[in-house]
Amino acid sequence: MKSNLVLPITIVVAGALIAGAVFWAGKSGTGTPNGGNGGPIAAKPYDPATDHIIGNPDAPVKVIEYMDLECPHCKLFNTTLHQVMDYYGSTGKVAWITRSFPLAQIHSKAPEEHQAALCAGDQGGDTEYYKFIDDVFAITPGDNGLDLAELPKIAERHGLDVAKFNQCVSSGQFAKLVNDQYNEAIKAGGQGTPYILITVGTEAVALSGAQPYDSMRAAIDAVLAQLPASAQ
């Protein structure tokens, strides 16, 4: 994103969300909480080596969601983002990336659940990663209520190699990635889940909390409207 677009995008997004939606953004260039000053923040761009994505990997706008699989608000917002992608996905202009942000101090099971989702993705790619997350949200009551014995059952239902899946989870193959993504979210200003970055390139505006569908549409449309014609 060119720097002369950042401020207009932030202003328009804030204006679109101010009637009812919770909005705040990070401090320019620092990645720390800003107390709601409305400035842009730095965002780690899509990395196919570590990220899973729904939509066009080359989409000019990417919605990065830092989420906790035991967060009831994330469970609600997961449905919203599927609706968002149902609307924008076919245009190729918007993609959705999910990253781990397990709040282990209140949801001690969440880190293992995120590792399990990544193990599913390791076998089945983006499709199985997101299906696994959908199934976790379908059965967990939230707030650390999932029986972890359900994780290999989900893998089995999806036709994954359960022995390989269990070995992946028990070995902690993705423990470092989960922790790295947690630290990423904190550095970007995340204080709770879901934490959402609407990004163009390496810059973003941030949204906190389970935004309603209409608010997400307004925010994304505001960013799309500010893109150069070549990017659109």
Write the layout of secondary structure elements.
Layout: H1 3-17, E1 41-42, E2 52-54, E3 61-67, H2 72-88, E4 94-100, H3 110-139, H4 150-157, H5 162-171, H6 175-187, E5 195-200, E6 203-208, H7 213-226
Parallel strand pairs: 3-4
Antiparallel strand pairs: 1-6, 2-4, 3-5, 5-6
Helix pairs in contact: 1-7, 3-4, 3-5, 3-6
Protein described:
It is a single chain. The protein is an alpha+beta fold and 232 residues long. It has one domain (3-226): Glutaredoxin (3-Layer(aba) Sandwich), CATH 3.40.30. Helix content is 46%, strand content 13%. It is built from 7 helices and 6 strands, in the order αβββαβααααββα. The chain has helices spanning 3-17, 72-88, 110-139, 150-157, 162-171, 175-187, 213-226, and strands spanning 41-42, 52-54, 61-67, 94-100, 195-200, 203-208. A 6-stranded mixed β-sheet has the order 1-6-5-3-4-2. β5 (195-200) and β6 form a beta hairpin. The chain is globular. The two termini are 12 Å apart.
